[in-house]
Specification:
The chain is an alpha+beta fold. It is built from 33 helices and 32 strands.
Length: 888
């Protein structure tokens, strides 16, 4: 049926089947022929790809097989589901019938028609009539044009992702096991409970990986759950056998083998891990995806809230951060490619053996997996070009399709020689090791190859992946501090020289990469130590990791981190910038990386002692990172922040504006309103103004509410004469292009003086001889909004505030009002602003739309006139004005 009907069916849809003249990686269709009959681990019969990218699967059955039976559909859906969205649909067909299933939702074994897409349940007599419909979805042309992306968006609504489902499962198993283990082993400590539960779960998940990869006998685990004998003694026996064969940390003797485990619960967990109850194919789940799941899993921990009573709670640092956010793969790939890839380019395998790569906050190992992957691919390409060199004959083998693959022994050698990591969380280091082990045993590795390495399959990574505090060394104890055992465990000091002696004999690491933690809560003793050790006036952990990387690197070694974008402009990062700017070779403006996190990020790349005068400026565009030019480091020092993503013309215009002798704070006193919003009500002695009441050149008619006198306890709440009111949160506009608008008006627009202001308003009290309307016109101008966005807020879309750190950086014209021409400049701008205030007041009071529209046209014209006058005050040329207005 495949040869005579199904193959021609897909050929008619434009898929090519005979492509022996090109690399198998680029084939349209991969077909599975010889598979173990009756196995639940069969791969789908057809895998469809476009330019090597997985698009969908098709599972073929003999004509007599009923597609409505639960096994055919479940096996196909389970395989596709485990790709974590890479294959959004799966086709099940015996040619007589064809069904298309949603592969994004969790498959249920007892519901074979679950996920069947409406309109995609056909028999062969319908194919001619439905051919256009089939072609528009599954032809090579349609899939190349994104037909499945459109379909995936439709079916993904209200569908939980595979990683969310797996996280729910392992979190549930952990909680259930923690409760039972605490009850059965009442002398076990909180740390011991966490370690025991983690080790038991990790071992079972790893064994399921071995089964699904055909490296261990299928259903080894399931048979234990189906039998009457106690499960845990049998499991321990299997773990001991795996230790003898695989070696590695995971199966080494462990105290958890001697504890009491609830038999009924353990068998339930095993059944839920295995076919048919499990919706997961562990050989399909990529180690990177499993690492992301574990990253979130490790955001919680088991706590004993009473004797033998266990609960699972979020870790305090995770609760503060609002969750765990793993680094997107495209960022991992970019950082690894531009450090490890750059370092090993042109090297021989022998030379690469000396390269040392570190992630000092490795978590579940995303960056280490990325580094391992690029090393594997580089070696495979090298051996492909040097197949005849007998020196390498034990390092690789050739697949039936001619593709070169590394032997497990060579991969183990790469791990031992090249990959290093540390993390303060012991469970994270264990998961990082497990992820690297899974990467070593990809689906091209056979049991026979493993048997050749019996006893040495998994390298001992305990000398490569260490648990400890990357920032705090044993000299922390020099001050004879008295700490509780819990504080000792939390600090977890680490000695780099003792931890990696062979690395430092060579002078340090070649590449330090990763996503270091930022904003971590520190004890006062930790803060004092870190301030003294690093001397940068900033104990944000991301800043400290930057400084530590410089210490850990050998000369000309690469450091590349994704860190908060505040590094490029915030005053508390100034000393950090000063210390590493000589080494910086690239800054990537990543903007918002995580939808749920307000903070923007950047990638900082440096090379120790490189001392380049320029660095590359780049910007993230979707999943791509694009270079935008080069930036002169001297200019960064001049502006006191990293000028990333700015064109040469923008920098020239910014320099001219910055050349003013004075700044805004020389002419105004900037204070926030008072914080008393919780006391606002419908009754009170004062009317309250909030940020929303302040608009450009006018005040909203409707007050925020009222407040009684006794709640107004601070002078900052009262509106001063001759002052300007500004929305504290600067308005950010995305269309037609990203920009900001500073929104302000004068306090004398208030006819009734019976007002107070809250802390969402900044009050700029005029302390100069300028008319307040002159200052207002400049603040509201396009020039100041542009300059502030580009040169103060660094193109950010984070929350931007008009407090003193901003206003002390706004260049401001210094006019001599005793000089006639300068006085005329001043008065002309005041006159335009007075007109603007009057026009806005009249528009606010207008009742008819035609009158509002007419006034708006005059307002726009006057606004433009104010902008032009401000350009004159700053002496901008027509070309520079074009740059400010975004037309250049």
């Amino acid at each position: 049926v495949r040869n005579r009907f199904i193959d021609p069916f897909f050929k008619a849809l434009g898929w090519e089947f005979e492509q022996n003249d090109i690399s198998p990686e680029c084939w349209d269709v991969h077909r599975e022929y010889s598979q173990k009959e009756g196995s639940v681990n069969k791969k789908p019969d057809y895998t469809f790809r476009i330019d090597g990218k997985l698009e969908f699967f098709a599972e073929a059955k003999a004509p007599h097989v009923r597609l409505e039976h639960k096994n055919p559909a479940h096996q196909a859906k389970r395989y596709a589901f485990s790709t974590s969205g890479k294959a959004p649909v799966v086709i099940l067909t015996n040619f007589h019938k064809l069904k298309v299933f949603n592969a994004l939702e969790r498959p249920v074994h007892n519901n074979p028609l679950q996920g069947l897409l409406e309109g995609f349940d056909l028999d062969y007599l319908q194919y001619p009539k439905k051919w256009d419909f089939l072609y528009s979805h599954f032809s090579k042309q349609a899939v190349s044009s994104g037909s499945l992306d459109v379909l995936a968006r439709k079916i993904s609504k209200n569908t939980r992702k595979m990683d969310d489902e797996f996280l729910d499962d392992i979190s549930r198993w952990r909680e259930q096991m923690a409760v039972k283990l605490a009850d059965l082993n009442q002398k076990m400590s909180e740390d011991g409970l966490n370690e025991a539960v983690q080790r038991i779960l990790d071992r079972m998940i790893f064994l399921r990986n071995l089964e699904d990869r055909d490296l261990e006998t299928e259903n080894t685990l399931l048979k234990i759950a189906q039998g009457d004998a106690p499960a845990y003694p049998q499991l321990v026996k299997i773990f001991n056998g795996l230790n003898e064969f695989y070696n590695g940390l995971l199966f080494k003797p462990h105290f958890s083998e001697n504890i009491r485990v609830d038999d009924k619960l353990l068998k339930t967990v095993i059944r839920q891990l295995c076919y048919p109850e499990s919706p997961f194919r562990f050989d399909v789940i990529e180690p990177e995806i499993l690492g992301h799941i574990y990253e979130r899993f490790l955001g919680s921990e088991i706590r004993l809230i009473a004797k033998s009573k266990a609960v699972v709670e979020e870790k305090p640092e995770v609760r503060k951060a609002g969750g765990v956010y793993y680094t997107p793969q495209y960022i991992v790939d970019y950082i690894v490619r531009n450090t490890v890839g750059e370092k090993i380019g042109g090297m021989t395998p022998e030379e690469i053996g000396a390269v040392k790569i570190l992630d000092p906050a490795c978590g579940s190992g995303s960056f280490l997996l990325g580094a391992f992957d690029i090393l594997i691919k580089y070696h495979e390409k090298w051996y492909d070009r040097h197949r005849k060199n007998k020196d390498y004959r034990h390092d690789f083998y050739t697949m039936p399709d001619g593709k070169v693959k590394l032997t497990p022994a060579k991969k183990a050698d790469i791990l031992k020689k090249n990959i290093f990591g540390t993390d303060i969380d012991r469970e994270a280091t264990e998961v990082a090791m497990m992820s690297l082990y899974l990467k070593l045993m990809d689906n091209s590795v056979s049991k026979n190859q493993m048997e050749l390495m019996s006893g040495h399959v998994l390298p001992d990574l305990t000398c490569n992946i260490k648990c400890g505090n990357s920032l705090i060394a044993p000299d922390f104890y020099d001050d004879d501090l008295l700490l509780t055992p819990k504080q000792e465990r939390k600090i977890n000091v680490f000695d780099w020289q003792q931890g990696f002696p062979e690395v430092f004999k060579q002078g340090g690491f070649d590449c330090v990469i990763g996503n270091p933690p930022y904003g971590a809560e520190l004890m006062k003793t930790e803060q004092a130590y870190l301030e003294k050790k690093y001397k940068i006036g900033n104990t944000d952990t991301a800043a400290l990791f930057l400084m530590q990387a410089k210490i850990l690197l050998k000369d000309n070694g690469f450091n590349m981190y994704i860190i908060p974008k505040s590094f490029t402009f915030a005053s508390n990062w100034a000393k950090t910038r000063d210390k590493i700017i000589k080494d910086i070779t690239e800054i990537v403006d990543c903007s918002k990386v995580w939808k749920e996190v307000k903070l923007e990020m950047c990638i900082c790349k440096s090379q120790k002692n490189s001392s380049t005068t320029f660095f590359d400026s780049s910007i993230r565009n979707g999943f791509d990172i694009v270079k935008t030019g080069k930036t002169d480091k001297k200019l960064c020092k001049q502006f006191n922040f990293i000028l990333n993503g700015l064109s040469e013309k923008e920098i020239i215009a910014g320099q001219k504006i910055k050349n003013q002798e004075k700044v805004l704070n020389d002419f105004v006193k900037n204070q926030r309103g008072d914080m008393f919003q919780k006391h606002i009500s419908k009754e009170g002695d004062y009317q309250v103004l909030g940020g929303k009441q302040i608009q450009r050149y006018y005040l909203s008619k409707t007050a925020k509410g009222k407040i009684k006198k006794e709640f107004v306890i601070d002078d900052k709440a009262f509106i001063k004469e001759n002052s300007i009111l500004v929305q504290r949160i600067v308005a950010h506009v995305m269309n037609p292009k990203p920009r900001i608008i500073i929104i302000a008006t004068t306090s004398d627009a208030l006819e009734d003086k019976n007002f107070v202001i809250v802390d969402t308003i900044n009050q700029l009290q005029n302390i100069s001889e300028y008319n307040s309307k002159f200052i207002l016109g400049i603040i509201n101008s396009n020039l100041i909004s542009w300059y502030a966005y580009r040169f103060i807020f660094a193109n950010a879309i984070r929350t931007m505030q008009f407090d003193n750190p901003a206003t002390e950086k706004i260049p401001f014209p210094n006019l001599d009002l005793s000089e006639k021409k300068q006085k005329q400049h001043h008065d002309q701008l005041v006159k335009l602003v007075e007109t603007m205030l009057e026009l806005n007041k009249r528009r606010q009071e207008a009742n008819q739309q035609i009158e509002k529209d007419s006034l708006q046209r005059r307002i726009d014209h006057t606004d433009k006139a104010i902008d032009n006058w401000v350009y004159k005050l700053y002496d901008l040329t027509p070309d520079e004005i074009e740059v400010v207005e975004g037309n250049a």
